Amino acid sequence: MAMIKGTRIALLGLGLISGSLAKALKATSWRGSIVAWGPREPSLKRGLSLGVIDEYTLDLEAALDGADIVVVGAPPAATASVLNAVFVALRKNGQTPVVTDLASIKGHIVAQAPTDYPGFVPGHPIAGSEHSGVSAARSELFAGREVILTPLATTDESATSEVANLWRMTGARVTEMAVDAHDAALAASSHSPHMIAYALTMALSKDGLAPIEHGGGALRDMTRIAASDPVMWRDVALTNRDALLAAMAAVDGELNQLRELISTGSGEELERYFAHCREVRRGYDRILNPMLEPREPAS
Amino acid sequence: MAMIKGTRIALLGLGLISGSLAKALKATSWRGSIVAWGPREPSLKRGLSLGVIDEYTLDLEAALDGADIVVVGAPPAATASVLNAVFVALRKNGQTPVVTDLASIKGHIVAQAPTDYPGFVPGHPIAGSEHSGVSAARSELFAGREVILTPLATTDESATSEVANLWRMTGARVTEMAVDAHDAALAASSHSPHMIAYALTMALSKDGLAPIEHGGGALRDMTRIAASDPVMWRDVALTNRDALLAAMAAVDGELNQLRELISTGSGEELERYFAHCREVRRGYDRILNPMLEPREPAS
């Protein structure tokens, strides 16, 4: 099994993702300590009482002291500011832990990172929930899910390898991508779908027939992520603006194409369109539903 | 508990929904018999061997003979034809069972129904799955879900009551709506969300970065129903065209509004928009996730 070298991890910001990381690590044979720092003491206290972390502090420098791995977990805009504060503090006290983050956009983060800190490994676990906060943390959140690392030209391979092992310990599969490719792919696979869920939910909420009251499983799934954290998604929308607008335009183009086919009563084309989508969706079911993947029979 | 008077049920078309209805009835104390008719013998044979039905026939008149309740389960366009054949056969043999259907659109069906058959109760269970066929049938598919009946001016109250009891036996809650209101509300709550899932899936499948490979739970949910039955959704799109186009235009309007807010960097408005959606979505969670509804503590 993958195992990190570090024995002390500092979580800067304690929420759903960082809390789930802590719980996942505690479910392995790793026996290090986890300290959390954050702006809101109640969250930290809750994390301590839930056994998610071993200790907490409201003093950033104290949290960094002696840490081997620093994980910044905050909304995208705040992630950049916290990272800057971290690099300033590390330069001051001369420590060089591995530093990674959890933000769903990477370009905006990397643009503000120092170019002379080889221990920085930008990261993004593709996992989440419409629930937020450390109380919603689950040790199995990352099982089978992808974690994308976007190491920079200045990043040490040993740092990348340590962060990759950190995630492998949670059951995730680790891949590497360039920053721009990450932001464009995620705009299409995650950011634009969130905007679509928001748009659908808003349209339904304005409809005088109260259609949501007649919703079934389809609507449950198509609106679930509209309950996601508004601050995080505001940040994502603004910090990955161009890629997001391009991805939304692509979906809008398809929606308009469908409206045209419906409007003109083009049954054969519609059936072909839908059949193609079914094939595409089925082809990706093992990636999108990793927990349902059938196990290989023991031979 | 609700209980139907009928002791023999004919299912015309055996698939996910009619098969789940049969399984749900067999899980109650009702001890009648269920005969299935359909165009494809393999499905009927599978239903028989799975114990979903008691017998089957390829002869429509034989299926109707002695039936107390006739349930037409077919794609929307085929539902109208089967209903017509049923009414012709019933007139010929002088039987007057209660007749209902399962189609997700009602206007198109009702427009073709005879105005002199008081036993006809148009119906629509708001439940389904991206899987189709009798093998995917589940007895608990309707638990907590809504079944909408749209009785006509000519419909006997006793027929409506029998069909309502049929559905209540499956654990569903039964509501009544006018045909037009049903089609408009469902266009918004179900039909348009399916079109959105198709459009999103198609846009992703054309993207050179293969973004679906980086999908997580959000994309799993936002594309799940794009694997739905192409023929059924072709029929829904064409037979509920005007209401569907209006619902899609409303979502498109919201998407354009979001693109504008993102484009102009309107952070406060975006956060307010997302926060409103979260509130709306949370407010409907008990309807959209009926299985998760906490039980009242015994007093």
From TrEMBL, chains A, B:
Signal sequence bounds: none
Positions of the Prephenate/arogenate dehydrogenase domain: 7-292
Keyword Oxidoreductase recorded: yes
Pfam families in the cross-refs: PDH_C, PDH_N
UniProtKB keywords: Oxidoreductase
Gene3D superfamilies, A to Z: 6-phosphogluconate dehydrogenase C-terminal like domain (1.10.3660.10), NAD(P)-binding Rossmann-like Domain (3.40.50.720)
EC main group: oxidoreductase
GO molecular function, one term: prephenate dehydrogenase (NAD+) activity
InterPro entries named in the record: 6-PGluconate_DH-like_C_sf, NAD(P)-bd_dom_sf, PDH_C, PDH_N, Preph/Arog_dehydrog, Prephen_DH
UniProt-listed GO biological process terms: tyrosine biosynthetic process
EC nos: 1.3.1.12
Name of this protein: Prephenate dehydrogenase
Native organism: Luminiphilus syltensis NOR5-1B
Lineage of the organism: Bacteria, Pseudomonadati, Pseudomonadota, Gammaproteobacteria, Cellvibrionales
